[in-house]
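Narrative summary of target 7.
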Amino acid sequence: MSTAAAGVRVFRDDFGAYPGGFPTTDERGFVNARVTRLGMWWDDAFWVIPLTGLVGAVAVDSIVDATDEAFANSELTLLSPSTAVTLLAAIGGGMITFTGFVFSVVLLIIQFGSSSYSPRTVSYFLRSRVTQSVLAIFVATSTYAFLAMISIGSAGRDTFVPLLGVLVCLLFLTASLVAFLVLIQNVAGRIRVDALLSDLGKIACRALTRHSPGTSRQQVEILDAATEMEDGITIVRHRGSTGQVVAIDVARAERMAARSGAQVVFKVRIGDGIAPGTPVALLAKDSGVERFDRCVLVHRERSLKYDPVYALRILTDVGLRALSPAINGTTTAVRALDEVEAVLRTAAPLALGPVRILAGSGSVIVNGTTWSDIVDLAIWEVLEAGLSAPQVTRRLSALLGDLLADLPPERHAPLLRYRRRLHAAVTESVKTQDAGPWLVGDSQGIGGER
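Modeled conformation, tokenized:
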């Protein structure tokens, strides 16, 4: 097994095969299209969990109401009907108002976070299952209170009060108050810059390893560069709607190529924006019965879960925004570089680049992200934006120096290129000053000189 393949196996053994959800890739790192579509729908379905709260409240009310009616002949009366109606109406109406107020504040916090860090962090905040679960509890409390109020005066007695129903409603109210505290804790935790960057770093590492092609099977080959076809090719164009490439169904393309004997090269890769008519693949052998464009999964936005470098893109955006003159938050940029270094260390041992899959007499080549692409995305823009900030140049010096010391020689070329650029640019910018202190390796930016 190659070093890259071993790196994939070790990471998955240490952190769980598919942490955070059901498996979306096969043993070779290629997506399962049906599960991926289901996963994308689930990620966007904000309403599903709150709806379960409403359905659950109806189910609980039917059980509790049947229990109350079974004891309808009991002489035990602790509440009068008017008191029960007042209590349940107050809980139901108050929860509706409270829910509106709480989630108005949450939306303001999300708006603040997205404007402070990056607009693309909105999906990170909105897809919190804690937020959706708390909303489900609030909806359940309001729904149950009104349903229990209907039961008052039923069971053939004008003075009947569903005592158990009132007690259960009070339990729902208590659960809502506890859920409110959990929501505040969760939102406050996710909005903090250190927590946000840490989560994005973990998401980036997880996405890279999950979607990195394995090389343990003979029909999978990692290429050094994309293959150029000769003349006589057929261009496959996108026939769907405009959007972002979320995944390529390699398994389906493999089956189609095996049937037709086609040699297919996908021109697009995950994260590309495409429109109707965009060339998505090239065929060396015309196969009119196959629709290889259907192997490209398109969504209206890039996905943190299925796009291997999107989280890294957001980390870079956060660093760039922090280095803008309007914010001037160099410490935030340094913190983003901490996570960037972790992502680069995770990516280094992986099998990166274009992949060829043999399929009978045909073959499929998928254009993948290379090591140089990942290093460019991680360092280039932050380096150019942070040349005037010694905190950033020192952190970059430490990052590049540590990676060069730890990674194998075949990963050094882009790192050496950026280290030369950093030294030359800093030397030119400080001019008559001593550039030495600007280039000292310092993991804290300023404060941790080695």
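The longest strand covers residues 243-248.
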